[in-house]
């Protein structure tokens, strides 16, 4: 593949992005429709938050395995199979609704299965992009991918909320089933090379591959610090995301089937987009660790503002800025991790670190739901905000506080 070919002239990359954009668009509908449907059926904050717990749990359970296997199996096959399974699983919701047999346990199972497929898809896609575009164009390709997903996250949830309000939340999920099926068709025709990692070529075991990734994270002080502090951030974000619909209904007085609920997801997407713009600017002005510390501290302050909002407009502003800081912490960690990790460890280190950092999300969502049932949603969120507050304070005991801290390229020995 020629490194001189403009990215826009790369037909394989364009088809890959079409497949991703189609599935992202459908998932934006489900992002709103599934918790809306569950809350409509149960009226329970705890069960609604449990949905977020179950969606985050597969990464915690299967992240290590998925990262290792994706370096050994056909990446294209993994992406196609997971897309087909997603389509079939999501289609069961409108079908069960049409026949009057839709149940709450089914919705929870759907959340678990689709989230599990996402873990393996993500693991495969980490290695797919470098086989589609030249290494020199990877930053440009990743930026294009992020831009497309963020734009969809802005418009998709609002449209999803409107569709769920008009057609019904269960029926709206048909859109996501169709988009996954279309994505599978496009991905199946991509000429992806079956590239195996160095560890697989030397016939190491899956367990050895996993341990190699874990050792790198444990020994690299910058990756270790960012990953561990990310746990507190994920605990709080799990509660905020899991209780978003509940806040809209119980504190802001919106109907549970209101299309305005989708606006909150859309504004969150806009906050994430602002974070992608803010990170390069902050990177030029702040040491790499200070960016994370700033994000953690501001995140807690904005969470307090979110819980104190009693009207739609201030709440929209608060949740948008909160998501900006939440995303800033996440993408700063991802960027630094990719810069310092040897090529041979990229897949395993990325999936493993994401699993560890996001491990607090199911706990945060579950505890937030229980606390909301017992003490109300505002108290629950303030308590769960201690997660990000603890990370902020603990960050000053790590190398992240150092003004002279720099990102170092991996050495041949490290690889």
What can you tell me about this protein's structure?
It is found in: Cell membrane. InterPro entries: MFS_dom (IPR020846), MFS_trans_sf (IPR036259), TM_effector (IPR010290). Residues 12-403 form the Major facilitator superfamily (MFS) profile domain. Pfam families: MFS_3. Its main location: membrane. The chain is mainly α and 415 residues long. It has one domain (9-188, 206-401): Growth Hormone, Chain: A. Helix content is 79%, strand content 0%. The chain has 17 helices and no strands. Helix 9 (221-242) packs parallel to helix 15. It is globular. 52% of the residues are buried.
Report the CATH topology name. Growth Hormone, Chain: A
Number of β-strand runs: 0
- Which architecture would the CATH scheme give at its second level? Up-down Bundle
Tell me about the largest β-sheet.
none
Structural class: mainly alpha
CATH class: Mainly Alpha
Helix content: over 70%
Instruction: Identify the overall geometry.
Output: globular
Q: What is the H-and-E element order? A: HHHHHHHHHHHHHHHHH
Structural domain tally = 1
Number of helices: 17
**Mean pLDDT over the residues:** 81
Low-confidence stretches: 195-202, 411-415
Proportion of residues in β-strands: under 5%
Keywords: Cell membrane, Membrane, Transmembrane, Transmembrane helix, Transport
Membrane topology: Multi-pass membrane protein
InterPro entries: MFS_dom, MFS_trans_sf, TM_effector
Subcellular location: Cell membrane
